[in-house]
Amino acid sequence: MKDDVATPEERSASLKGMGCSRKRVEDVRFTQGRGNYVDDIKLDGMLFGDFVRSPYAHARVVSIDTEAAMKVPGVVAVLTAKDLEPLGLHWMPTLAGDKQMVLADGKVLFQGQEVAYVIAKDRYAAADGVEAVEVEYDELPVLTDPFEALKSDVVLREDLAGQTEGAHGPRKHHNHIFTWEQGDKDATEAVLAGADVVAEEMVYYHRTHPCPLETCGCVASMDKVTGKLTLHGTFQAPHAIRTVVSLISGIAEHNIRVISPDIGGGFGNKVGAYAGYVCSVVASIVTGKPVKWVENRMDNLMSTAFARDYWMQGKIAATKEGKITGLWCHTTADHGGFDACADPTKFPAGFMNICTGSYDIPTAYLAVDGVYTNKAPGGVAYRCSFRVTEAAYFIERMIEVLAIKLNMDAAELRRINFIRKDQFPYQSALGWEYDSGDYHTAWDKALAAVGYVDLRKEQAQRLEDFKSGKTRKLMGIGLTHFTEIVGAGPVKNCDILGLGMFDSCEIRIHPTGSAIARLGTISQGQGHATTFAQILASEIGISADDITIEEGDTDTAPYGLGTYGSRSTPVAGAATAMAGRKIRAKAQMIAAYLLEVHDDDVEFDVDRFVVKGAPDRFKTMKELAFASYNQAIPGLEPGLEAVSYYDPPNMTYPFGAYICVMDLDVDTGEHEIRKFYALDDCGTRINPMIIEGQVHGGATEGYAIAMGQEIAYDDMGNHKTATLMDFFLPTSWETPTYETDFTVTPSPHHPIGAKGVGESPNVGSVPAFSNAVHDAFRPFGLTQSHMPHDHWRVWRIARDLGLHG
Amino acid sequence: MIPAGFEYHRPTDMASAIGLLQAHGDEARVVAGGHSLIPMMKLRMASLSHLVDLQGIAELRGIELGADVIRIGAMTTQNELITHEGLAQAVPILREAALQIADPQVRYVGTIGGNVANGDPGNDMPGLMQCLDASYEVVGPDGTRTIAAREFYDSAYFTARSDEEILTRITLPCPAAGTGYAYEKQKRKIGDYATAAAAVLFGPGGASIAMTNLADTPVWSAEAGAALAAGDTEGAVSAALAAIDPQEDMRGPIEFKKHVAGVVLRRAIDRALSRAAG
């Protein structure tokens, strides 16, 4: 008999498992300045690299003179495309099946493009060296508009001249990249032709940038004695980077160690491979010294991956009662000078075909045309799963446009078109199988929580007051019900460069009953060390405080595809649970042996195995851990370890209902967010506090995007928003206050029912903010006005509607 | 974002500082808080061989409150302006404006002298100084001279101060008791320069109106002040708007800025009038 008086509830609470708002274990070091970011890495003899960048958006590079730069004290070497060409590294493959110049090879295609790489003994000398490199350019005509680019005689990608077949099918024009079609075009056009009502609109989701607080960077260190390359970097997918480096450099993969240390935010910006990584590796091989490259803010905003830039022409058909019968979308996607989108290989426009949203739309058609322009390459998923933000914004705008056309309340229009709970699993017209959902419950809860009926009454009164001159502020109510598609993904249809998008977890239980778990993902602020330990705590009965989570070192962690697209919890979280269950299965056999009963006669009880019907007879997981190291058990190997590589059977489909109430000053264009309510259903909730933090962070990014953040170019392709003065990052002062709420509809196919939440708030909040702006001006006839809704653009809406008297 | 190399000097008296400027000519610049100059150097838009830091010169600090005039040392920080109790009572518009400059971290280091001397049209203090009819004391090799704020600004970054002179002190006449005031600024976010800003004084001593970031210099309009003093608000607004010449930037097109200038100015006037005694 053991002295154990704790109740099962007390034992469960002490595990700090799933459902517990456990404080983030990472924050101890982050709040004390003890994080270890790439720029904190200092190696003996380390050199620094910096880029000469193009001042022009489109130009021939006539000559590059490095002589003066080589004379700058401290400059060690200057690399140009000519130096990389013999190695075959002057171009590199992109994740989207295109190729991209590492250093300008004869011409430049966007302002800020990398032209030469200066290596020096310190950052200062490198910067002086950059100044001293003399480049002669011959300017070429600039194309910044994708529609113009498709008509222009100007050939941006001369390297592709004559190639009528791209990575994703036929190219229709020399500046065209691909056409991607989903759904049934003929059927959709037939529905549109016969519909009671068709609403049509061009919805533009402008170009913006993930702008993580920490910019991109790396330290490459080639050890010529061992032949091993160590590459520290801000990588959201360290294992994939290792494979890519091996494939393009020819260095055997076992001789490459990639380490992602602490990362200060990624949001998709740190998924792709950049010229800085390639040049740093080459520089380290050439010099035999470690080489560090870290972007400054302007480098980051001008040259590393942007997001969005989708022109979405939409048509939505409905009966006169408001039942949607068809959706048509043609998107023109501005990819910049190279197609460097980070999407699964078979999805050149990501999961844009989730654009039927939360609605039961029987017939739909989507076509996306990718286009080259003189802008920076990218097209990453900025805190979203592969173009899901664009899709959600599109459908949530089209619903509003249809509501105007039908003269219906937009909340009611949504309600009558939601996919019903009993329709799940639901097969969408554009090819997805939605796993689970209960949209009506979430919607009703949200409308009740904000007092929707009263808000509409208040808005009507405000409108009266505005018309009678009592106020110059209009009130907008922004509604959104979004459905995400995350957790890429099933290996059968999701890969990146041929690497299936599974993920992994490896667990080792120590003799004293604590543990380490390593995963193929990498936290950039998501709190993996906290939440994955909670999943394991619940699965294996060891306190989360006794479990170390480690990620990011490819020499020690199991192979995985990394962290982006809200895939960590759906994929690596599932692997963690499955590996935990393997541990538990072995622990059960050890327990049965020690308790001298059959395996089936013991059952798991929070933190122990108990003989069925004899609660006094048990072995705790701590005891079983030690036993695994000191008992010779017939038929069982010593030790307690497990690994799981999890290939998800399907995506997960988180959803939510967001409502924004906003006041808008028609004279100055200023806004005030009076209320922002966010209901998220991410299935099983692992750590409610972290979920709330994710919602606050994502909604704040969404606020920025909707209300001011953009990457803007002038007609000459000059980047107009390369500093944080003009690129809008809200401070605490501008940031709205959020009310968070939830429903729980577990994923039926995920081991713990979790769906992922990190990106929902960005996906859902942008249309909520934007719809509020549109809603305020709806009584005056506004149907569509493109984001960002910064002061002057809101002012312009009011002016164009004649509200300035 | 790394400046070219330069020599850093930190003199402790004015004579040494002026000596350095004389010795190095246009290769040298003084730096106060550094919030305008250092970013320009980091962008390599300003390249200087010698940077003369004024932080070590004690006589450039401090606020003296007189009966009729107030003297503020050029190296007084925005935070010192905000937290000085007597100053806030004597010239409340100064505190109201300083609180709208940048953010607290910048205000701990940014100085009033640097703000007015640099000639950046985005800075808030030049317009306010013109509204208050302040004057600047500049010291150079030939001694000290005083320049009215209303005469100081020629064009963006070009002022009446010569390269070998240092702006040392700002003198403000105390507004008459009962003067209403307002500094109204529209900006995109904390830390931003004004989309449009207006400084308004209205009281027994008359009225004064100046606007910020709506031309390549601050815009003080005598006609606008006279109209307001005469009770003609709309006349004041049209006179001020006639004097501005905004440029398009990421804050918006010209037409928008002109519209907002009017809105901001009307709001400033309304607030100043509501605060005026009687």
Automatic annotation (TrEMBL), chain A:
Cofactor or coenzyme needed: Cu(+); Mo-molybdopterin cytosine dinucleotide
E.C. number(s) listed in UniProt: 1.2.5.3
Aldehyde oxidase/xanthine dehydrogenase a/b hammerhead domain mapped to chain residues: 32-141
Chemical reaction(s) catalysed: CO + a quinone + H2O = a quinol + CO2
Pfam families noted in UniProt: Ald_Xan_dh_C (PF01315), MoCoBD_1 (PF02738), MoCoBD_2 (PF20256)
Keywords from the UniProt entry: Copper, Metal-binding, Molybdenum, Oxidoreductase
The protein's enzyme class: oxidoreductase
An example molecular function term from Gene Ontology annotations: carbon-monoxide oxygenase activity
Domain of life from the UniProt record: Bacteria
Protein function: Catalyzes the oxidation of carbon monoxide to carbon dioxide.
Subunit-structure text: Dimer of heterotrimers. Each heterotrimer consists of a large, a medium and a small subunit.
Protein name: Carbon monoxide dehydrogenase large chain
From TrEMBL, chain B:
Tree of life domain: Bacteria
Pfam families named among the record's database cross-references: CO_deh_flav_C, FAD_binding_5
Gene3D superfamilies associated with the record: 3.30.465.10, CO dehydrogenase flavoprotein, C-terminal domain (3.30.390.50), Uridine Diphospho-n-acetylenolpyruvylglucosamine Reductase, domain 2 (3.30.43.10)
Keyword Nucleotide-binding found: no
Keyword field contains Cell inner membrane: no
UniProt KW keywords: FAD, Flavoprotein, Oxidoreductase
InterPro entries: CO_DH_flav_C, CO_DH_flav_C_dom_sf, Diverse_Substr_Oxidored, FAD-bd_PCMH, FAD-bd_PCMH-like_sf, FAD-bd_PCMH_sub1, FAD-bd_PCMH_sub2, Mopterin_DH_FAD-bd
Single GO MF descriptor: FAD binding
Stretches assigned to the FAD-binding PCMH-type domain: 1-177
Annotated protein name in UniProt: Carbon monoxide dehydrogenase, medium subunit
Source organism (scientific name): Antarctobacter heliothermus
Higher taxonomy: Bacteria, Pseudomonadati, Pseudomonadota, Alphaproteobacteria, Rhodobacterales
